[in-house]
Design goal:
Oligomer: homodimer
Shape of chain A: globular
Structural class of chain A: alpha/beta
Order of helices and strands of chain A: HEHHEEHEHEEEHEHEEHH
Number of strands of chain A: 10
Largest interface: A-B, 61 and 62 residues
Number of helices of chain A: 9
Helix content of chain A: 40-55%
Radius of gyration of chain A: 24 Å
Chain lengths: ~230, ~230
Amino acid sequence: MRERAIPEATVARLPLYYRSLLEMAEHGTQTISSERLADAAGVNSAKVRKDLSYLGSYGTRGVGYDVEYLLYQISRELGLTQDWNCVIVGVGNLGRALANYRGFGERGFRVVALVDIDEGKIGKSVDSLMVEDFDDLERIVKERQVSIGIVATPAGAAQDAADRLVSAGVKSILNFAPTVLQVPDDVSLRKVDLSIELQILSFYEQRKAALDAVRRPRRLTASASKSTRP
Amino acid sequence: MRERAIPEATVARLPLYYRSLLEMAEHGTQTISSERLADAAGVNSAKVRKDLSYLGSYGTRGVGYDVEYLLYQISRELGLTQDWNCVIVGVGNLGRALANYRGFGERGFRVVALVDIDEGKIGKSVDSLMVEDFDDLERIVKERQVSIGIVATPAGAAQDAADRLVSAGVKSILNFAPTVLQVPDDVSLRKVDLSIELQILSFYEQRKAALDAVRRPRRLTASASKSTRP
DNA sequence: ATTTGTGAATCGGTTCACAGCG
DNA sequence: CGCTGTGAACCGATTCACAAAT
């Protein structure tokens, strides 16, 4: 392997490997096989090997991967060797929880500003950061070199928040608002959507209930349950 | 179309269509084409048509889809015609934010219990719900017919939380803890992982920076910038 | 003996393009 | 004529299976 372009699906799994490897390193593990890394990351070993092969040939046949070395390679690939400054837009329940979230810095993500439109919130402080005026977003992004915008507004305000982030020059947005955002092609957008996740669970839960109903020989009517017991 | 089994990718998009259709209905829109629904949901129209075709032939050629009828069909498919009771395990920053989150009930998801192991939190109330003892989980799940467990504990406690949910009979789990959970095959598991999302953004952000560096003719050295201005 | 790295086969999902129908 | 519904072609990602490396 020695081409550019790592598949999207692989990129999405690298953080998983990274986290597992961090745990290994803490336990003092020196080398790890694709099999054991796969277990830790909750995938299969063929996937691990194929994924890692996109980064280069960092394993040793018959032995496995050196934990420290692989950690370094993945962190370099993911851009975790530097810090990234983030701004949280919208300081409601969720925004506040995110601001307070330790382990945000679980590798170099620093919340350097909180902004909101609500006069009542501006000037108050949350987790040692002062809430600032949404209108100052452009200046804040420039001055503090913000590269990631976190949208934690209500749905109705999210597109506006995104537009302002984009025009301030932010090229990466993480959206927590329950709405579809439109951004230019050169801006990366990821979303975290609680109610969508719940609805997906609901689909499968319902399907299970439906299957159960078919399987079970309707034991609720007295006659039916009697007839099966002669 | 008239087979069972809706593709996973389709299931994951149904909530998106559902939300868009709800907005349409509020605006008083009667019918909608796959093209316009696609725009609202942020996908393309071929995908919309294929996805909806798995549910049945609910459109009218030359016209589009009836908004109300489609809403009903999707909500039935997603199991949104009934309420689902949820328990939140772990009442830290995130658990509290989730408990307070309005629009949780954005279609029938009701938080009926909060549990934690911390004696200091048990008995306190959060958003009109009393925090209860994690040890009572099994009883709570049974008594209140909880079908969805939301894990909002620290990483180290998450597997234990999941194990207890599973042994209490919960078959759907939404994990917010930054760790891989192991659950039996018959349990549905979804995860929401902030730091993974940030790391994915970081990857693409870094890649953009690397590209820029190649494009730009290193204007930081005085000699270089001078030589371009004769 | 063991485990990687990777072509080849396979699978699931997306997109194309148009026949079918209102 | 317009828009849906869907086979067929396509594409990316996963899995298989084994030769290569130590």
